[in-house]
């Protein structure tokens, strides 16, 4: 073969013609343009987790930000988890959750929530309530469906609904009491409504919805043949004698309610990632299919420890509620003294405040100021509202030691001083 024909063969084998190169280039660009899904583009990054990453890099911060307890887990639970690993419970578990754990959940549901559920067909263990929420929505919502949520809402709900292809439909919880208007709620229901997502006790406001409020929701669900998805992760954290009521116990609601909870908050094990869903068999079947492909199963050795947790005696729950109520009271005094306005939380471990009187442009700016100038980490309230809402709220988490809350008091005293100086420096008219 002559040198010319060899070169031609080489070019034809290994090189692209110019039009081919152009085609490849455009295809590559196309791929780059379309490689990020629409759903991943329209959900915003989590403010809570974003802030937590930033805060973890700053020394000497007093952290009342992300909702997680700063005290140790009960020894008995740590030992149960360690023993399960030592006993080689280290492989995938039953996809729906260890049968013994599902039985423990059934006992707890009956005893605490007043709901009778069959562990075989109605209970599924998930990777946190976070996965439970996603699985429930993915199993029930079709593109174009609307899901009603009270606003403010736990920041995950907007992305959860969006990822499932649904459209959030917001109904205001009106400050300062954070109650809803029954007519506004009724107006949100329509033929596109698939579900209403209810969180009680409520993050961020600390509301514990009353029977009368839940009854209004239930009546509308029945009228419009709509599903209730309830997030009851803070169910044990209710104060001053308030009572947690599960939506599924209201007449006619058991068959149209998906109840979600988990171990993260009650037992202070947010890193264990154990949640669960209680739902009628047909919903459980659909949701289990989604759950199986999302995560396969929750961490097996921790499920074993979860059984021990759920079987803890009344003293544990009583002690926990007393502890949180005292911390809430301590923080409320501190926040009030510093000039924040709020309704005393009836539940959860958050204090949600109106910070508009401090004169910041918005809560992001105030959050930044508290962090940088005072060394106090909080959560800026905007993430609990629809994107682009104009908000002036600061959320504090009080799942902290009394010492940490006392340290926050000092930081807020510094904040008060700085505000006085700022106001004095303002030109007088
Ligand atoms: N729902 C609400 C209202 C929450 O505040 C949280 C945060 N813990 C979750 C669900 C997620 O809980 P988990 O850790 O079980 O995923
Ligand atoms: N639920 C907790 C909070 O609201 C923590 C989980 C999260 O990171 N969003 O802070």
- Major β-sheet profile: 7 strands, mixed
User: Mean pLDDT, as a whole number?
Assistant: 92
The first-to-last residue Cα distance is: 94 Å
User: What is the level-2 CATH architecture name of the largest domain?
Assistant: 3-Layer(aba) Sandwich
Instruction: Detail the poorly predicted runs.
Output: 10-22
Helix and strand pattern: HHHHEHHEHEHEHEHEEEHHHEHEEEH
Shape: globular
* Strand order of the biggest β-sheet: 2-8-7-6-5-3-4
The assigned structural class equals alpha/beta
Beta-strand percentage range: 5-15%
Helical content, roughly?
A: 40-55%
* Number of structural domains: 2
The CATH superfamily of the largest domain turns out to be: Type I PLP-dependent aspartate aminotransferase-like (Major domain)
Q: Let me know the number of strands.
A: 12
The value of Rg in angstroms is 25 Å
Query: What ligand molecules are bound, each kind once?
Result: 4'-deoxy-4'-aminopyridoxal-5'-phosphate, glutamine
List the helices and strands and how they pair.
Elements: H1 3-14, H2 18-34, H3 38-42, H4 47-55, E1 62-63, H5 75-86, H6 99-113, E2 123-127, H7 128-140, E3 146-151, H8 157-163, E4 167-172, H9 182-188, E5 193-199, H10 211-224, E6 227-231, E7 257-262, E8 274-278, H11 281-295, H12 300-310, H13 314-337, E9 350-354, H14 363-374, E10 376-377, E11 379-380, E12 393-397, H15 402-425
The structure holds 4'-deoxy-4'-aminopyridoxal-5'-phosphate and glutamine.
């Amino acid at each position: 073969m002559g040198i010319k024909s060899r070169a031609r063969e080489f070019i034809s084998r290994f090189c692209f013609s110019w039009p081919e190169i152009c085609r490849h280039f455009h295809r590559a660009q196309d791929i780059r343009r379309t490689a990020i899904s629409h759903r991943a583009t329209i959900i915003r990054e989590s403010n809570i987790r974003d802030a937590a990453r930033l805060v973890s890099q700053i020394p000497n911060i007093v952290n009342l930000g992300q909702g997680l307890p700063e005290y140790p887990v009960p020894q008995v639970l740590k030992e149960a988890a360690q023993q399960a690993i030592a006993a080689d419970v280290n492989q995938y578990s039953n996809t729906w959750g260890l049968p013994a754990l599902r039985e423990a959940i059934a006992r707890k549901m009956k005893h605490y929530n007043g709901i009778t559920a069959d562990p075989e067909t109605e209970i599924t263990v998930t990777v946190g309530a976070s996965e439970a929420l996603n699985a429930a929505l993915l199993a029930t919502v079709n593109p174009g469906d609307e899901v009603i949520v009270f606003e403010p809402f736990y920041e995950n709900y907007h992305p959860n609904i969006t990822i499932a292809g649904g459209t959030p439909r917001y109904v205001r919880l009106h400050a300062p009491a954070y109650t809803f208007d029954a007519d506004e709620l009724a107006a949100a229901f329509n033929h596109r409504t698939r579900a209403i997502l209810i969180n009680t006790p409520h993050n961020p406001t600390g509301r514990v919805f009353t029977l009368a409020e839940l009854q209004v929701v239930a009546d509308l669900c029945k009228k419009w043949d709509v599903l209730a998805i309830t997030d009851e992760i803070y169910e044990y954290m209710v104060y001053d004698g308030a009572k947690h009521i599960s939506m599924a116990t209201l007449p006619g609601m058991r068959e149209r309610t998906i109840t979600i909870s988990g171990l993260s908050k009650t037992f202070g094990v947010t890193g264990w990632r154990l949640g669960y869903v209680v739902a009628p068999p047909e919903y459980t079947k659909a949701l289990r299919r989604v759950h199986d492909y999302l995560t396969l199963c929750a961490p097996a050795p921790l499920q074993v420890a979860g059984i021990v947790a759920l079987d803890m005696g009344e003293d544990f729950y009583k002690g926990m509620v007393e502890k949180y109520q005292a911390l809430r009271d301590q923080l409320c005094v501190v926040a009030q003294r510093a000039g924040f306005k709020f309704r005393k939380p009836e539940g959860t471990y958050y204090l949600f405040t109106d910070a508009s009187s401090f004169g910041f442009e918005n809560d992001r700016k105030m959050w930044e100021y508290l962090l940088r100038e005072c060394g106090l980490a909080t959560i800026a309230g905007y993430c609990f509202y629809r994107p682009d809402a104009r908000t002036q709220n600061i959320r504090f988490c009080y799942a902290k030691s009394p010492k940490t809350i006392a340290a926050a008091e000092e930081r807020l005293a510094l904040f008060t001083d700085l505000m006085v100086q700022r106001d004095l420096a303002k030109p007088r008219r």
